[in-house]
User: Fold these one by one.
Assistant:
Number 1:
Amino acid sequence: MRSTLLALLLLLMLAACARDDGTTTIRFWAMGREAEVVPELLREFEHEHPGIRVELQQIPWTAAHEKLLTAFAADGLPDICQLGNTWIAEFAALDALEPVQGRVDASAVVDQGDYFPGIWATNLVDGALYGVPWYVDTRLLFYRKDLLADAGIDAPPRTWAEWEQAMEAIVRTGPPGRHAVLLPVNEFEPQLSFALQTGEPLLRDDDGRGDFSGPGFRKALAFYAGIFEHGWAPAVSETQISNVWDEFFRGSFAFYLSGPWNIREFRNRQPPALADAWGTMPLPGPDGPGAGIAGGTSLVLFRSSERKDAAWQLVEFLSRPDIQQRFHAMIGDLPPRRSTWDHPALADDELSRAFRDQLERVRPTPQVLEWERIAQEMRLATERVVRGGQSQDTAVTGLDARVDAILEKRRWVRDQERAE
Amino acid sequence: MRTGPAARLAAWTFVAPALAVLGIFFALPVVAALLLSLTDFDLYALADPAHLRFVALGNYLDLLRTPMFWKALGNTTYFVAVGVPLSIAVSLCAALLLNSPLARMRALFRTALFAPVVTTLVAVAVIWRYLFHTSYGLVNWALGSVGIAPIDWLGDPRWAMPTIMLFAVWKNFGYNMVIILAGLQAIPQDLYEAARLDGASRWRQFLHITLPQLGPVLLLVGVITISGYFQLFAEPYVMTRGDPLQSTVSVLYYMFEEGFKWWNLGRASAVAFLLFLIILGVTALLLRAGRRRELV
């Protein structure tokens, strides 16, 4: 009896050793919906790479930022992670991210030239590359073709001036209560999109101070606030509209500025009679099709990881165009590579085409770790204009003062570094 | 009594473990947080300790100039000013009903009314979110059947805080109820008997016997509830995340956002100490009022 036990124990130990030698286990943190669908792809990855096991942890978006920072403080970061691209500057400042330019240069899969330049740029902090884009999120217009035709507009507007004419016509010819566009005031993306379209910087002095009182943002704010002043858009937040999709199909507004996930939502909720009556179009710009925001997430490696080579293989796997195409089919996220878009499933999808078009023109936001807070302040400032009746001049100077205060530490740290 | 060095040593030896635990897990963190609140500890300092600056009372002065802090304080005061009296009134009513000689199945009701206190907050918050859902919540359905238009309970800035109050009162009233019930049972019955002989109505008995006799208990319950309600956090965190229009951002929620969303731990610690001072002030006032009426 005792000898059998001993033999069993030995066998177990041997088995344990064998596992230790044979496979590398990498820890992968993914967020939100992506984390729910990615296991299917991970199984395939493990099949292709028998020596690597992937331990996936699903993190809800609402808790992701806290969890990552706490993990950093406690030295418990994973090997590879899906990171919102506005957080890259922050984790780069913490020196938590592994620079990956060398790996990209040596890679046969990750081809920098194939990526949309605007989205690639979100991964660069002070010239160093810290991640590879996984999917992109840009905002454009969903619109009702039939309502535009009713108002006598033949083609989707391409410039701000054309768009203003279209909005004016839609409200003038429509029934009372119809608005031309929905730009929820609880979102910062519309204002930010317009501001990026002007091509002027949002921050100045080496990203040390706000430049919101500069000509670029003033122009964008004037355009944005004008839409509300003319009564083309209702000054409401998204929560005040009980069901955006119903209202869209009811014709309460003809344009809706939103993101790729709504393609699916609108498709699921469209009344059969209106199936061909709506579409997507790139955002009009000041003088021609305009830029958009370059949101989305990237795949990053953490400096603390001891299994970077294995983790990089997973980055390469998830960056492959065929895998990205399947990922898009599962969840609808927009791929960041042009070659993925050549796949018939994407190329033939009329609703995705406008996104493809706009992705060539997306622009990154300033890569400072305070950016999310600045974006929130910007939203509050614009809400004060359209809802609180504050003058645009007061709003932008006030916004600059607040942003300067938020960036005070950044300026100080920069000065310290320069002095060293 | 003899208090030689040996006896003194023995005494210190006996209290040492307790003192050590208190020191390590209470005094030390409090002092550390106080020091932290005098610095600008943030992400830059987390990356490199050389980026930490001593700012003295800068965080505190800055907070007093921050509109969002005042808004959070206003929301919290609103919650305390309405929630605490409501909560104690509900607890008192429930305790009176349970203590009534007419009450049947007392043990069952006592358990049932106490049940919300021991439930998991997050789990019941999810259920409440369903109950108060605008389009398919039970509450709006019931209101609809008597002809009241649906209310966007958690999405309307005017209704979100009252909904949180209702939830908090429902969740907490059982605890105070048990304390008050114990107080009620300690009131001598002969007082009521004498009052009845004098022809006092039930309402007068309540006003002139029950309430004065319950005085110390109510004061205790008031102090506990006020300090608890000032620390409102989990309810808005789970149900509204501070929305809509920041109408449910409490002081603690604001501290949480400063500390763990923006990682400004220096400022967050300053918020914590300001809240501590506020709670200390309010409870001190309450105790002083109680002392004047000779309740303590």
Number 2:
Amino acid sequence: MKNNTIKNHIDLDLTHRPDISYIAKLIQTGERVLDLGCGYGELMWLLKRQGVRVQGIEKDDRCIIQCVKRGLYVHHGDIDDGLQHHLDKSFDFVILNQTIQQTLNPGEIIKECLRIGKKVIIVFPNFSHWQIRFSIMISGKTPVTDLMPFHWYDTPNLHYLSNTDFADFCEIQSIKVLKTASFNQKREIHFLPNFFAKLTLFVIQSD
Amino acid sequence: MPTPEKRESTDNQSVGIVETKILKLASLTLDNGESLVPLELAYETYGELSAKKDNAILVCHALSGDAHAAGYHRGDKKPGYWDFYIGPGKAFDTNKYFIISSNVIGGCKGSSGPLSINEKTGLPFQSAFPFVSIADMVNAQEKLVSHFGITQLFAVVGGSMGGMQALQWSVAHPDKLRNCIVMASTSEHSAQQIAFNEVGRQAILSDPNWNNGVYSNDRRPSKGLALARMVGHITYLSDEMMREKFGRNPPKGNIQSADFAVGSYLIHQGESFVDRFDANSYIYVTKALDHFSLGIGKELTKALANVKCRFLVVAYTSDWLYPPYQSEEIVKSLEVNAIPVSFVELNNPAGHDSFLLPSSEQDSILRDFLSSTDEGMVF
């Protein structure tokens, strides 16, 4: 392994990530969870400590090796074509934590998630955050932010959406929204979320 | 991911001098109702069995392999076939684990097979040897494991045909293993895999010395067997590997019948294979491979419904003989059954043979999957 910086036992305290601790509270011990685009497995590891039966899908080689190191169960592959085999409602939760904006067919994937999951937790960077709005207005350039630290030519993000965009999507698709939450870097926020939220979370269910 | 690294000096990481032993038991009843009398099974062991007998890992070999997986036979320069991964401090750490490497029945490497003496006639069975399946190979291994007083293996691992055995272990003896590692393998052969094996078998059958599988040592169907091996060898490599290794270079060594290096290499592989393998065994073992079937899709899901261990399934992008989709098929069925499984597709360029070659990623995955067993049981 080249990347020896990440140790077998993680000292990383993720509870400071407001979205992560929010998700962890939504899920009960013994529930079955699928984490799509699980990265290095930080959320999975936290859930697993909580006694959640969690598995992930990830396409990045380095991430997979680290997940196995952490004793997590991961499927090396692409979520764009990796969900069909799962049975209807076979997971208590399906999680898309900052993944959906990088998929080829987000609409199709959300539909699949709603089929295989009793509930779906979806988290994405809110593209209508005030800093992004002003950045475009003033610089006239595609914004480069802490949550989307890429240029137009090297970004993995294929789709840009806002809080309101997703609410509209759910309404048009007749998807039931069970919960929404908005976060800045440190905590949950409630005031003008479409303007002040950096991250947006929806808990949804098929109607 | 980088290409496999050159092997470092691992003298202090070798299990040292080893020897193949034979376990002889009264008999084994085969899947088809016939019996093997007696049952002989060749094996090697490395490391020490713990007092609780809970640290044993069974290693299963591929088509032309044998029980010699690690260390050196006295006088040999080459170590066992998986020496990169088995030894003190290696992925299958012999300081921690007791490794049992078992030969398969039906082969010609010391276990019961076509070369065994038929007690009724006093002559070798040759083609009168009964058909053996992957399940029979596993049931024979199960007797070996019981012989050590082991009630549950820490892991069963294998690549290619060894992977089929590992998978069969999880199905046939679900309570007897905690981990199952399946590498470059499949739940059943595809038409393409059967096709290559059929060409190999037909090459043997068309040898003038074949004589329905009854031949003396000085009139063996060597040409046919060599040809079978040559075809097989092509399927174990990748386009990229062949291009890199041979390109359009002229032949090497004293084989002048070939125009190109790849030809002389294959001829050499074929010729050296006939010195260490028996044509009947080639037919028996490739048939066992072709007939192994746990199904695919829903059928496979049903076949894997009662497995109890955790799984690691490893595939290789460049493996076109056992393509990654076949491994994924196993993984998907396990996932539908809510069995804990990790699936890793490694980018090693060496084709099907990749699992035999050194790779730091593979090393890390194998090592970490095993060492996370206790925490990984919470699922």
Number 3:
Amino acid sequence: MRNAIATALCLLTLTANASSARRRAVAMPVREDLTLSFTRSLIDAGTIAHRGPADGNATRTTQDVGIRIESRSNTSRRAILRASLTSPDPQVKVRIDGITLGPLPAVIDARALVGATTTHHIEIEVSTAAAEGALLTSISWEAETP
Amino acid sequence: MKKILVLTVVILALGGANAAFADTSSGTLTVTATIESSISLTVESAGGTTSGTGTAAATSALGNISKYGSAPTGFTLARGASNWTLSSTIGVQVDKANLTSTDYTLTAQLGSAPASGVTWKLNGSTLSDSAATTLTSTGTYGSTGSYSWDIVVADSAAAAAIDNTIDFTATSN
């Protein structure tokens, strides 16, 4: 009786595992399935100069960028879009769609549409205490299937 | 039986882990800009009926003025033997951004020649329309500097408008 129960449970388990594997083979995306592309690979915000007291303690400039997530296998309809700064500067704040970026990835869109280009609003805020000169920062983006 | 159940759970857990992997893609967007240093000057206060304070282009209206009339708003009137003086102050603030300079020089100059018999003074120095007068060479950024403002009118001056413009220039040191 013990042997019979054991055999039955093993068969049940293997059967369940095998059927889910078949499902995955059809529905699950393969690794490297998503691709991320930008309408602009470089954002040049030009010259940032404080315009007076009305600007407060920082100067802000905004730029838009379009981001497209594609699924090679067409199995993903939505993705989680995150962004972070590779080298954060305390004198420069970068916000995407109002979300302040830091060294850790922040969710920009929890349900980003795959297969469509979505425009995101990038705000760069430079403190009046920042030194004059060249500003260079990189935004790391990642898209992940939920 | 216990062993079999444990085995089953392990197999199911492995199957679940295998099914839960997520696909990820990443990219980098480079942002460049040039931060430019700047200073700004604002007129914060002035005698008379003022408008545009807090900006770089304020206007002060004194209305009709006379030796034996009353002083305009924000002014005092002092009558001398052969002239009379309207006195007030002008507050000027200079702010800096993205600049390492620690102080500034502030000058003032009249926009046009003063009416005959009328003298414009700031900080006791007579202003002209031909050369700038230095008010301070160690101005402090971010705080309003108050400068005495006198308009001296000779009794012999013709009754006429005395309109003029005081142009302030701040230069970072």
Number 4:
Amino acid sequence: MTLYVVYVPDTGHVVGAVNAVGVTLPDDAEAESLTGRELPLRVNLGAGEIATLPLAAGKLAVHAPDDQPGVFADPLAFGVEQVRDAKPKPALRELPSWENPDLAFTTDSLVVTLPFEVTVQTPVLALVAVGQSVRVLPGSIQAGGESIQLGVTVTAGFYGVLVLVAGLAGVLTKVEKKA
Amino acid sequence: MTGPLRPAFQEGQVLAAADLAATVAYARGATAHHARLLHDWGIADGLELTTEDRTDPTTNARYVEVSVSPGSAIDGTGREIVVPAPVVLSEAEFAQVNGADLPTPEPYPVFLAAVDRARTATGPGSCAGATGPTRVEESYQVLFGRLGDERLVAEQRPPAVGAAPADPPTRWLVLLGYVRWTDGHFTAVTSTARTVSLRYAGVRADTVVARSGTLSLRSRPSVQEGQPALVLSGEDPPSLVYGLYQGSGSVSPLMTVAANGNLTIAGSFSGQISAGSVLATSGSATDGMLLPLPSGVTPEEVADGRVSLHVYVTPRVPPTPNDTTLTSPAEATVDGERRVRCRVRLFDYAAAPPQVFEQPGAVDFLVLATVAATSGGGG
């Protein structure tokens, strides 16, 4: 039984996993075969409201890593270590957890603040569900920095947010924009 | 238009040259009709472009001397073209056609065509004195084409069904291969260029029978180890065998159909799912992923109803951060796309205040794919 994960190449985060008896994919399989046109990640905003954050299949990749049962419990806590001009490393990397992530909306941005300063330029990808639409907010934190402002304007309320910072466990949560 | 005219002779008839010519023409016509209508035109035997390494004494450049090996072909008019001895290709004749081209790695086509050459018979002459040659050699000529002329081969049209052989023969190009040309010499040969390959003679037949009781089809003129063969055997018991030739010349079966209909194969089988069969897969998947289909089942078969899916999912219990956190599934299902929808609710009753939160979950699944007997699954 082969484990397959789909991941975001920009940051390396695993966003979905599947294994099945007797099912093998070709080496050049695309994520669409496992996710359809998009992979919808969902966040409960409360009061029965669910925010959906779809990741386009074209922006995802497939990897068949060594077995890692923990990836089914929390896929965002694992990363794929990519190698230039070669296949990714066979073992998934368990990413450092990010307790109580500091995510906050300002008047015109989503501020992501890390618990430490990064030593190298660090890619960041955030998705914010605003009603029926989704804002995709790519960026990077410069070496020596610890936060980034990603431009987005929202009204007061709860929003589903996915934040992927390279090297840290991904965060899928709701964030309140206070009035 | 009349049919073929067969000469008939009467006792005491004075035979004119036209009578004898008609006899020959009748035979030629019958042969051409047979070759044209019961065979596909092409190379029948030999006629390969072969090379021998040479060195230019003035430049020390290496090149090859190209020859056409002896053989025969049938052209599209039904004319048999025989090359009785090896023929060395002339670089001078090639240069006359293509010598002005800029240097190119592209290979040039080489053709064979029928040609008649008048010959004088040896032996006693005519009582009336010679008025012309009394023999015609059914000869050949090797022609060099321009780049791209190989496409002319497919554009040739055969004569009408009842047409007699033309005199002189209609020019019909039989592709022999290609030559590469560098600095005034041939440097290589090839059998395919620009998607146009050699054409070999074929047979037109609705029935093929074997007198020995065993009919074999093979992909090469001679038996070669490792090459495929199809053998229809009328031995006791009869069988149909597909296999590969062994060194001994026998066929090692890969697939055998026995007289009772039993099918035996040496490899694996894939194809349409037979009616009534059930295929299964099981595993685990996280929220949002599509459940995989059992091996051999395609999404199209599911979409058009040939295959029905039966899906059973069980939510996985996630690890909890402490002993005071309880979990319960908030959602564990699969939608019409086969997409997993699983959320798990966690409740920490010891927290102050008590906390309830949700997170994406994962499921263990079992997928059964069934083909109804009435759905035409190929069974």
